[in-house]
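Case study 2.
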Amino acid sequence: MNVAELLPTLFINLMSLFRKTTKLNQLTFPQTIALYIIPDQGIEMSVLSKKIGIDLSTLSRLVNGLEKRGFVKRETSKKDKRIIEVLLKEEGILIREKLDKSFDLIGSFIEKKLNDKNNSIKEALTKVNWEISKIILNNEYV
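Prediction:
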């Protein structure tokens, strides 16, 4: 199986696994991903949009839903009033901590299945992740 075939299969399998194991507070999967991605110091809406891979209007609706539930808040940037930042509230931090534990359990389970091959696979996945992140942040789409 080549990389072009492997990546979509890996993506689908990971999505399925994460969806089944991270059902928290009746959040949608995109809301769950957003809460997981938002760092402690907050993130600009445009950057979050790129990281999740959705347009700003879709992200705005997603963030609205999270705001209504008390997980996040929006603030204008102190540097530039045109920039909107999304910050986690206390409830959002608690959800992200639960997500961290859930993702750690998934990772540990997979690591046990891989045994001795763990380091080379871990290194390869780190490289793949880094390259994908650079493609996303630099808008280098095919």
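The mean pLDDT is 85.
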